[in-house]
Structure formats: structure tokens, C-alpha cells
């Protein structure tokens, strides 16, 4: 009997302890699961951070060394932000103009390069082309022992500061627009430009011979002041409508009276028309005032007959009423032989020749030693337009430096 009670007592004690032991096991399991969960979460966060923050290669340049071996130089997305900023700044600053011509932003405008590319794709292609050439020239300059002087390095420092001072506080925080990265890019560009100029200087271009190819007659500039009345009017859709015979009759009478007044006036530009709203157009007659730097090869300003009469005028002469199918004119010749356009064209012709000869040498003797390939991240993930754009940039710029290289840009993830 006692043994039976003892057994029952022991069994009872065991029954009381079982739930406590079970709860302990559950707690232990939960702790293990929690730890595993935290480890998995930490691993996922680490993976996400690595994916988002790891350097993104956008360009690889393979160089042939003198011993026949090759070396690979990688350009990362961070280093492209300076060029992206300049490209976006250029086209976004002319947004209204592109809206007027294309009916959309430049980035959305179709076939802007006659290759089927919209603005964003065309600008991206041109940007990568320039980056490839800069990197190749930079590497070739280093290989050939070309370096920047102390004075040139000082200019790089100034250029970096000027660039950074022009950024808004928000832009200064963008990935790739930090001082160190911008300095790297501007310094590379400076060395590439120096090397390019050395190559051009060694080409032996005969500038006088190039200038001799520019026609003095074609680029002779006739500086004009003139009053005119257009015979047609154009609506907002670009449709042109001829004005009525009665309107043209009245207009001719008005411009004949204006011509008589202009001949007697001490100043051809004052007191000839009544222009209360300062739009260079008479309030009542619609006759307008303008100036023109007419070139010898210009065929658009007026008809051939009118152009011949204008070009025969002496300095200070005021014409009678000139007429063609498009308009009535009263012209004053200010300078019938301005050399500005001719000299400008000569300069342009020399620059074009330098660039053409450089392009040939670069293609045949320099570029052939390098293989430059845009990488998949650039091709598939980078979309130009608003990566570095800050609509408030003009009101925020100051000289304060904030070298934080973090932050992200709108559209397309500027934080690699």
C-alpha cells in the first residue's frame, strides 16, 4: 500500500513538472527561430546594400601594352555623374526652346539624331563616345609620359571649386558629384585635352592655306537697319495667309510715308514709328524695325533683286521702298564690309581642319591600341534626363562645401 502511494506521489510530481519542461523547449525553439530570422534579415539587408552600393562598371578600356600584354581599366558609374550633370544642365536649361520646337522635352523628342533615337538616347550615346575618347587619350598620355604642370594642376583645383560652387546643396550630396570624384574627372579631362592639343600642334597644319579656302564674298557682312512690312501673316499652327489687296495698298502708303520721314531723320532708329509696347512694331501700321548682319551668300533675307540693290548701297545710305513677293523694306546701310563674319568663318575653318586631321590620327594611330566597351549597366539602367536635376538649383547655390557622397537622384538611381 505504501509502495503504491509512493508510486502515485512520484507520478503526480512528474505530471506537475512536464508542462514547465515543455514551455522551456518552446522558448528555446522560439529563440533559435528568432536568431535565424534576424540572421536571414541581416543577410538580406547586406545583399540589398551590396547590390545598391557596389561599384557599377559602365565602361571598360583594354589597353595593349608595349610588351604585347593587355591591361584593363574600368570606369564606374560614379565617375560618369560629372558628365551626366553637364549634359542634363545643357538640355534642361533650354527646356522651353525644345518644347517650342519639338512639342515635348528634349529627352522625349523623337529622332533628334536622324538615327531614330530620342533625345535621351542620343545624348547618352554622345556622352559615352566622349567618355571613351577621354579615357583613351588619358591612358595614352600617361603611357607617353605626358603630365600636368603645377600651374595646370592649380587650374584643375580652381575648376573643381567653380563647378562645386555652382551646385545646389542637394546636388552636392549626389553620388558622384562629391569633390574627390569631380576632381578625378576634371583632372583626366585636363590631361586628355593637353595631349590632344600636343597631337594637333604636331600635325603641321597650314592655317593660311585653310583660310584661303574661305570666300571673302560669301562671308562679306552687310550690317543693316531696316523697317519692313510682311505681306503674309502666320497663325499658331504655322499656316501662312496672304494679306488682302486693301491691306497691302494701305501698308505701301504707310511705308512710303515712313521712308520720307527716315531720310530726313537724324537717327534712323528713333521717332520713325510709334512703339508704345516696345515690341519694335508700330502700334497702328504694323511696320516693324529690325537689324541684320547680311552675308554675301545669304539668299533668305529677301529676293535676289532686292539683295542686289541692298549690296550696292554705300555706308549711311537709306533706300527707297524696296519690294518683293514677301515684304516691303526701307533699309539703311550701316557697314557694307564688316569683316567679322569672314574672320569668324576663317577661324572655324581652321578648327574644323584641326579636328578632321586629329580624328584621322586618333582613329588610325591611337584608338587602334585600345578596346573600349560600354557595360551592361550603362546600356540598360542609366536613363538621362533628370538624374542630377534640381529645379531649385539656381536659388540654392552657394560657396559652402558638403562633401557627403551619399544621396540619390530622381529617376534612374544616381546612387549606383
List the helices and strands and how they pair.
Blueprint: H1 2-53, E1 57-64, E2 70-76, H2 77-92, H3 95-102, H4 119-143, H5 150-165, H6 169-172, H7 179-201, H8 207-211, E3 221-230, E4 232-234, E5 240-242, H9 245-264, E6 288-295, H10 304-311, E7 322-323, E8 327-338, H11 340-366, E9 370-374, H12 376-381, H13 393-396
Antiparallel strand pairs: 1-2, 1-9, 3-6, 3-8, 4-5, 7-8
What does this molecule look like?
This protein has a four-stranded antiparallel sheet with strand order 6-3-8-7, sandwiched between helices. The protein has helices spanning 2-53, 77-92, 95-102, 119-143, 150-165, 169-172, 179-201, 207-211, 245-264, 304-311, 340-366, 376-381, 393-396, and strands spanning 57-64, 70-76, 221-230, 232-234, 240-242, 288-295, 322-323, 327-338, 370-374. The protein is 51% helix and 14% strand. The model is unreliable at 45-52 and 396-416 (pLDDT under 50). The termini are far apart. The longest helix has 52 residues, at 2-53. It has 416 residues and is α+β, with helices and mostly antiparallel strands. The protein contains 13 helices and nine strands.
What does the oligomeric state look like here?
single chain
Mean pLDDT: 87
Instruction: Compute the number of strand runs.
Output: 9
Write down the secondary-structure element order.
Answer: HEEHHHHHHHEEEHEHEEHEHH
Strand order of the largest sheet: 6-3-8-7
Q: In which range does the helix fraction lie?
A: 40-55%
N-end to C-end Cα span: 82 Å
Largest sheet report:
4 strands, antiparallel
The number of helical elements comes to: 13
Question: Whole-number radius of gyration?
Answer: 36 Å
Beta-strand fraction estimate: 5-15%
